[in-house]
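Re-run with default settings, no changes from the original entry. Doing this only to confirm the output is reproducible before filing.
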Amino acid sequence: MDRMLARLERRWGRYAISGLTYYLVAAQGLVLVLELGKPGFSQLLVMDRERILAGELWRLFTYVLIPASVSPLWGLFAVYWLYIMGTNLEAQWGHFKYQVFWLLGMVFTTTFALLLGIPATGTYLVMALFLAFATLWPEYTILVFFILPIKVKWLALLDVLALAAEVGRLPGEAKLMPVLAVANYLVFFAPELVDMVRRYVRQARRSKEFTRFKVEASDTRPGVRQCKACGLSSAQDPRAEFRICICEKCGGKPTEFCMQHIGNH
């Protein structure tokens, strides 16, 4: 994915908009103000197939300008959080890659919403943006309700659960809508997600083998430990100290060594 984006950027990067996040934040802030002044204004921006076919073509794009919430407090928080996520991702990826992320999300959302005739807003797009932010900076901490500190990786987990609940709630083909709306995240982070799963499986396997090794050692050789490199055992030298290693040289399996060989085997 990175190689393809690099090739595209060399050809089309000069057309990337600098500071896209600032325009999105300003537009969503304006929509929030107009919605508070005239409730129902945001409905003019929702992507609605019937209204689009009636000639309201702006709806193909304006749905991304609707804040995740239109209540005064949460609307401000949503716009502020878009600013935090967007500016950091844009600085990390560069203007072109950041805009491709948005464009992919809009293409998936727009295409599927038009095919099924389901009204759409930018909520899922912001969710995909948040998942990307949490993947790159999982330890970033925010104050929930401006009091409770919590790391974004746990909020991202809640987002995934909410997404799964949404898939279960929607009827028929509409179940695909939340998944396709965050497909840009899956496209961008597929390698990282695969590596994450592999690391988890590998660590779980090592932990299981380590536990089994300790149990077997306690059952078969109670109180006796032995260095695999030199054969020294605690029976030969009760004062000898031993450590367990699970490095790649040991094949990831828990192996005992004396202090002399634990760092050189």
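Residues 183-220 form the longest helix (38 residues). The mean pLDDT is 82.
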